[in-house]
C-alpha cells in the first residue's frame, strides 16, 4: 500500500516539475540535461541556374503583370479578373 502512495506522490512531483519547466519565463533557462540545442549545418549546396524555359516564364509573368496593372480598370470593366486575364495573356505571349 505504501508503494502505491509513493508512486502517486512521485508522479505528482514529476508532473508539477514538467509543467513548471514548460511555463518557465524566457529569461530562465531550463535544465540543460533535458534540452539539447543543435544548430543547422551551414548550407554547402548551391542553387542551380534557372533554365531558359524558366527565365522565359518569369519574363512572361512580369509582362502580363505589367499589362494587367496598366489596363486593370478597363479589363475589370470588361468583366475580366486576373484569373481570366492571365491564361489569355500567356497564350498571346507564348505565340510571339
Main features:
3 helices, mainly alpha, 96 residues
- Which word captures the global form? elongated
Helical percent range?
55-70%
Percent in strands: under 5%
**Secondary-structure element order, N to C:** HHH
SS content category: mainly alpha
Radius of gyration: 31 Å
Indicate the low-confidence ranges by residue numbers. Answer: none
Work out the helix count: 3
| Rounded average pLDDT | 81
Largest sheet: none
Q: What is the number of E strands?
A: 0
Distance between the termini: 88 Å
Provide structural commentary.
The chain has 96 residues and is an all-alpha fold. 64% of the residues lie in helices and 0% in strands. It is built from three helices and no strands. The radius of gyration is 31 Å and the shape is elongated. The termini are far apart.
Summarize the structure in short.
The protein has 3 helices and no strands. It has about 100 residues and is mainly alpha-helical.
List the helices and strands and how they pair.
Elements lengths: L1 H21 L29 H26 L4 H14 L1
Helix pairs in contact: 2-3
